[in-house]
Amino acid sequence: MINKDIDFHFKSPEDSPGYLLGQLTTLWQRKQKRVLDPLDLTQTQLVLLAALAWLSKESDAVTQIDIANQGNADRMMVSKVLRTLAEKKFVTRKEHKTDTRAKTIKLTTLGAEVLQKALIAVEKADLEFFSQPDVDLFILNGSMSKLINKNKEQ
Fold first, then answer.
1. How far is CA 43 from CA 40, 73, 79, 88, in A?
2. What is the mean pLDDT of residues 38-65?
């Protein structure tokens, strides 16, 4: 049989960190979708709105590139998603004062209200999802941050 000739590094799927991360991500995204759908938001839209809100605390001239860099996201994808958020009236996109190639992005009042509701719902869902008596979230978050930083440049 040909399947017996396939060589796996891991003895079972449950031994593979990539497999487990994929399974966990799928389940987490499903939970996020359930809480974001009533707010007419996707996970990606929420991430970009949150990045905009964080960056807006420091600057009045947040650009699409700033948002992409904040979330380690593809610039073209960010541009498309921000256009959708503008259509929903959650953000405004205006010409940058000094760089005609750049767009300045601002959260609207409606966008801020939706973002606040989404953050409350998502943070509650995250706490429910990740709460496990023998899992230390501080250690888990630290480990994930180290892996993100290690692999960010690759």
1. 10, 13, 16, 15
2. 93
Q: Cα(44)–Cα(149) distance, rounded to whole angstroms?
A: 20
Average pLDDT along the chain = 90
**Pick from 52, 61, 57: which is nearest to 97 by CA?**
61
- Tell me the DSSP string of 65-101: HHHHHHTT--HHHHHHHHHHHHHTTSEEEEE-SS-TT
Distance CA(17)–CA(9), nearest Å, equals 12
* Separation of alpha carbons 37 and 45, rounded Å: 11
Amino acid in position 124: K
Q: Is the pLDDT of residue 154 over 70?
A: no
DSSP bridge partners of 104 = 63, 94
**DSSP type of residue 108:** -
**85 C-beta neighbours (distance < 10 Å), count:** 23
- How far apart (Å, rounded) are the C-alpha atoms in residues 65 and 102? 8
Instruction: Give the integer Cα–Cα distance in Å for 118 and 131.
Output: 19
Residue with tokens 């004062």: 97
3-class secondary-structure state, position 141? helix
Instruction: State the pTM of this model.
Output: 0.80
Tokens 């256009």 identify what position?
Answer: 83
